[in-house]
Amino acid sequence: AIITSITNVKQERPIRSVSETSCDLAKNSVFPSVFGKENDVLLLSQSFDDSAVKSQFRRPVGTIRLGHTHSIDEAGFLFGEQLDHTGKTGELTTRGDGGGSCK
Fold first, then answer.
1. Could you report the per-residue pLDDT of 28-83, keeping only the tens digit for each?
2. Residue 93, exposed/middle/buried by CB under 10 A (0-12, 13-18, 19+)?
3. CB of 57 within 8 A of CB of 29?
4. Hey, is 34 helix, strand or coil?
5. CB 25 within 8 A of CB 101
6. Given 23, 42, 70, 88, which residue has the most CB atoms within 10 angstroms?
7. CA 37 to centroid of chain Cα atoms
8. Which pTM value belongs to this model?
9. Which residues pair with 69 in a beta bridge?
10. Residue 87: left (phi > 0), alpha (psi -120 to 50), or beta?
11. What is the chain's Cα-based Rg?
């Protein structure tokens, strides 16, 4: 599990928008576009039902890796960034060797 604490979150509406996908059918992880506003914090979470090292799923361009966990048969990654504009983020894709097409 990865637990993240973020400062200055609006208590009455901490989550502005959610977009999700599973089995993205891509070697790397493809995160769908989501609407955000300037200065929002964008979080991208990925779980993988096989072990994976950090280099297999490197951060999408513009983001930082906030967390990574793995064991013999599963892995999880958390990436994030502070948005510098209002609007859709566009799809974001991890880099590296990737893994199976169903994550």
1. 888 999 999 999 999 999 887 778 888 888 999 999 999 988 888 888 899 999 99
2. middle
3. yes
4. coil
5. yes
6. 42
7. 17
8. 0.84
9. 76
10. left
11. 14
